[in-house]
User: Which sequence fits this backbone?
């Protein structure tokens, strides 16, 4: 299992467009065979701060995701909307696995 978490700061004038692009990407990502989870959150007290949480069955599923048209569209659409980002690869503690 591969768990990926990203923190993104989105320029204030782009939050609506970022959310729309991320929803579209998420809807398609959730249909991928190797995707277990895709979620996007924003901070309640700072609406330019977003967190993506993605869980995949394995490294092959991650690679397949990065090769999809919807991911590439999301990336090219949003890359200039984001002013800062950081990411983490995580390991499950509890529950030790996810089944969707």
Assistant:
């Amino acid at each position: 299992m591969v768990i990926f978490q990203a923190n993104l700061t989105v320029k204030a004038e782009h939050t609506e467009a970022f959310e729309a692009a991320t929803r579209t990407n998420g809807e398609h990502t959730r249909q991928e065979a190797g995707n277990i989870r895709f979620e996007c959150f924003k901070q309640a007290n700072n609406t330019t701060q977003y967190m993506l949480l993605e869980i995949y069955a394995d490294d092959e599923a991650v690679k397949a995701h990065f090769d999809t048209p919807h991911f590439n569209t999301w990336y090219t659409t949003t890359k200039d909307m984001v002013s800062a980002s950081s990411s983490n690869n995580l390991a499950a503690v509890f529950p030790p696995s996810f089944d969707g």
